[in-house]
């Protein structure tokens, strides 16, 4: 399996700031934003400190009849805030496979996007040691007007590979994505089925050879052939990577794959511990007993 990113020694990355470089064991210095990083810890893959993420969306408020007359039918613009993650702190040691569970809207995908550097923290800090790759559902970041192959090439160029390297890898990534299916890689992505889009996103993710691997329900979409190949590729990557985050509603998959688990509820950390214990508490919280079917929660 080849790499889309130039290989380098894992260095801690602190999202939101370029000042923090705790590669040497030096006394921690206070930064301009007041954050004092702890001295470097070689056993850590990820550290999350007081992380909060708030989405802000603007929407048009429906006007009252009187306002509609005064404003000629136009509504007023309002801002809606959603606190998706609230003051979250935890550390993940190298070698851990961390399950992330919780109800719809709990903040699981938001956490993964923030760890992957796709979303900036609103408050707090995320530090990652090594290159993080994400296999989020439905290929976040793809341009749907371009073909799968063009998206792969653009992504490769953006990550600093030469044109020749990118071309070579694009062929390999495309072949992996299409295996066992009809050919779609040279069609615009807007024409893809959801399973085909996931195949491309997943293939890009596994060919990045990440140190920190994030998987968001990637296995649940796709046909049986794809799921078998994807599970095999994930298991291989899990053995090579420093840490894996696995977001899932499939409790059996979390039990099978993970050796540590966090449960989020409305953006807050409810519990962390052994997957069996955390899943059991979560099921009780949902009003289900141990005997209930926990495959999809
Ligand atoms: N782009 C966005 N803009 C505004 N609000 C958002 C956005 N994305 C997510 N949210 C909100 O943030 C909260 C957390 O969403 P998130 O997708 O992280 O939850 P989740 O635990 O992954 O849910 P699910 O299990 O349904 O996938 C939800 O209330 C959601 O509505």
Automatic annotation (TrEMBL):
Highest taxon above the source species: Bacteria
Annotated Pfam families: ABC_tran
InterPro entries tied to this protein: AAA+_ATPase, ABC_transporter-like_ATP-bd, ABC_transporter-like_CS, ABC_transpr_TagH-like, Bact_Polysacc_Export_ATP-bd, P-loop_NTPase
One function term, GO molecular function aspect: ABC-type transporter activity
Keywords tagged on the record: ATP-binding, Nucleotide-binding, Transport
CDD domains in UniProt: ABC_KpsT_Wzt (cd03220)
Gene Ontology, cellular component aspect: membrane
Bias type Polar residues, positions: 1-15
Regions of compositional bias (Basic and acidic residues) in chain numbering: 16-26
Residue segments, region Disordered: 1-41
All residue ranges annotated as the ABC transporter domain in the record: 70-291
SMART domains named among the record's database cross-references: AAA
Similarity annotation: Belongs to the ABC transporter superfamily.
Name assigned to this protein: Teichoic acid transport system ATP-binding protein
């Amino acid at each position: 399996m080849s790499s889309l990113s130039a290989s380098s020694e894992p260095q801690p990355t602190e999202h939101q700031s370029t000042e923090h470089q705790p590669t040497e064991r030096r006394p921690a210095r206070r930064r301009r934003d007041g954050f004092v990083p702890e001295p470097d810890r070689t056993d850590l893959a990820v550290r999350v400190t007081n992380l909060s993420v708030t989405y802000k969306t603007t929407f048009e408020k429906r006007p009252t009849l009187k306002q509609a007359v005064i404003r000629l039918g136009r509504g007023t613009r309002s801002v809606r805030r959603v606190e998706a993650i609230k003051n979250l702190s935890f550390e993940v040691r190298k070698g851990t496979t961390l399950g992330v569970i919780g109800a719809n809207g709990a903040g699981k995908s938001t956490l993964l996007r923030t760890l992957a550097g796709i979303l900036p923290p609103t408050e707090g800090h995320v530090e990652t040691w090594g290159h993080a790759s994400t296999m989020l559902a439905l290929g976040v970041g793809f341009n749907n007007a371009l073909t799968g192959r063009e998206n792969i090439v653009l992504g490769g160029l953006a990550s600093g590979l030469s044109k020749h390297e990118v071309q070579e890898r694009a062929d390999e990534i495309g072949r992996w994505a299409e295996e066992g299916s009809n050919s779609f890689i040279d069609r615009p992505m807007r024409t893809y089925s959801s399973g085909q889009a996931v195949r491309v996103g997943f293939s890009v993710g596994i060919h990045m050879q990440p140190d920190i691997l994030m998987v968001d329900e990637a296995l649940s979409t796709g046909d049986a052939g794809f799921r078998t190949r994807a599970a095999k590729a994930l298991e291989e990557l899990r053995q090579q990577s420093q840490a894996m985050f696995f977001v899932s509603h499939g409790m059996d998959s979390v039990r099978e794959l993970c050796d540590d688990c966090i449960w989020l509820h409305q953006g807050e950390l409810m519990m962390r511990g052994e997957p069996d214990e955390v899943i059991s508490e979560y099921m009780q919280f949902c009003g289900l007993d141990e005997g209930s079917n926990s495959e999809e929660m």
